[in-house]
Specification:
- By secondary structure, the protein is α+β, with helices and mostly antiparallel strands.
- Helices cover about 20% and strands about 30% of the residues.
- The protein has three helices and eleven strands, in the order E-H-E-E-H-E-E-E-H-E-E-E-E-E.
- The protein has a seven-stranded mixed β-sheet with strand order 1-9-8-7-6-5-4, with helices on both faces. A two-stranded antiparallel ribbon has the order 2-3.
């Protein structure tokens, strides 16, 4: 049986404190910087709550775990859903690039636009050195009312599952469950349990 814990309010993405008047960018401005070449694919950044944030450098444990997660989900994914890996989603004030997104298919519908909140049923961050930032991102995803958010937590060998998003002034997920070892993590899409995956099957042997 999985252990459960109440979720404290998720803190906002850390903001610079030295300069109070730093400028927040809109999603449209962020897109424009890409169009003009101010930001390129070489710039490993994403937009979080108006801040352009540097993404963590990937390492072998991260990429190996991501492969496990991707493989496990693809084996169970219904054909009407699309699985996207390290691809952007567009939210009201953010454009994060989660490690895994399950969005309404077909995947070809996203040739001209990234998935919006209504398209996204489920997303995952694989966390090693990025664990603190990925927990902070729960605030971003809860504000967008993404129904299910997993963090595959490499350092603690567990899967953190966040559900019941609450938007508003202090967005957060109202429920968090922790899964370890042989405990079965429910794979839920549109409120329906599609499958169960043992937490250890989402972790590299260590």
């Amino acid at each position: 049986m999985a252990s459960a814990a109440a979720v404290a309010a998720v803190p906002p993405v850390q903001e610079p404190t030295a300069l109070a008047d730093l400028y927040r960018f809109t999603v449209e401005q962020y897109h424009r910087m890409g169009e003009l070449g101010v930001l390129t694919e070489k710039d490993r950044v994403e937009l979080l709550e108006g801040w352009i944030v540097r993404k963590m450098t990937r390492n072998p444990p991260h990429d190996g775990t991501l492969w496990l997660v991707q493989t496990s989900l693809l084996q169970r994914l219904p054909p009407e859903w699309a699985l996207r890996v390290q691809s952007a989603i567009t939210l009201s004030d953010s454009e994060p690039e989660p490690d895994v997104v399950v969005a309404r298919g077909p995947g070809t519908r996203y040739g001209g636009t990234h998935p919006q909140p209504a398209d996204v049923a489920f997303l995952i961050e694989v966390a090693d050195t990025s664990l603190a930032q990925d927990r902070q991102k729960a605030r971003v995803y809860a504000r967008a009312r993404i129904p299910v958010y997993w963090i595959v937590n490499i350092p603690d060998a567990r899967v953190e599952v966040y559900t019941q998003p609450r938007a508003g002034r202090s967005p957060t997920y109202r429920q968090q469950r922790i899964y370890r070892g042989d405990e079965a993590v429910p794979f839920i899409l549109d409120g329906k349990e599609i499958a169960q995956i043992a937490a250890r099957d989402l972790q590299l042997p260590g």
